[in-house]
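Repro:
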Amino acid sequence: MPANDALNSKRIIIGSRGSRLALFQANWVKAKLEADHTDWEVSIEIIKTSGDIFLDAPLSRMGGKGLFTKEIEDALLSGKIDAAVHSLKDLPTTLPEGLCLAAVSHREDVRDAFLSNHHSGLAALPTGVRVGTSSLRRQSQVLHLRPDLQIVNLRGNVDTRIRKLDDGQYDAILLACAGLNRLGFQQRITERIPVDQICPAIGQGALGIETRKDDAATRKTLECLHHRETALAVTAERAFLRRLGGGCQVPIAGHAWIQDDRLQMLGVIATPDGRQLVRDEASAPKESAEYLGIHLAETLLAGGAREIVGALLEQ
């Protein structure tokens, strides 16, 4: 029986990963719900995902989609939990049958962060130094800008990654500004990298709250978390990614934003070594978010992205 049904009292169980950042995000959602719905009881259930268990291999080699979401979605479908809080960049663009994205939060800083104890920014790094990241997207764009750098795999939660930097295992590391801001690590950011230098991940900076399609009560309760402008932007981004395909082994980036009452979007696809990179921009009315993402993807495919995706999927 689902955790929340018409026979139960007003109660929501939120599913979350157990990392410090994931729990911060889940507790943020919990506090918002409790403030807006004082008569509802909200609790958090910690669920370990495949991405949390296998911490040594690069994410791009672990295969498949939903490394940080599948087990949580299984708990949703079984009725163990009523809602799931995800970093939207981790949520596959196609959801399991019976689930839906009920709310998208107001977006945090979308940019990537450069952290170093000795260097002022990406452009200031000496040739050959070690830069840590687990993201093929970041790797490809950094190497496109700085092919002289050495990219080294970096896994673990935010605290672990910063500790590895401080231990001297890396000369610099790349993380998301959003996570650092949420955890109070703003002072560790050496440089906030402009999106026109390193384009962010699809959905970066936003939270996606997922629930069952047939759970009308929970869906209604989650409406207080929904931010329309962010939702329009990530709808375009997720349509862009869905059309390009390729999974986590293909470095794809996209960022949409509203400007002058229109939706603007930047899209990037590259080879992991950064030698080939295709990028373009497009705009459309706000109401045409899905169209914008698909249109920009088609533009990139025609401009060389199709060959990049095809070659990487053959490997």
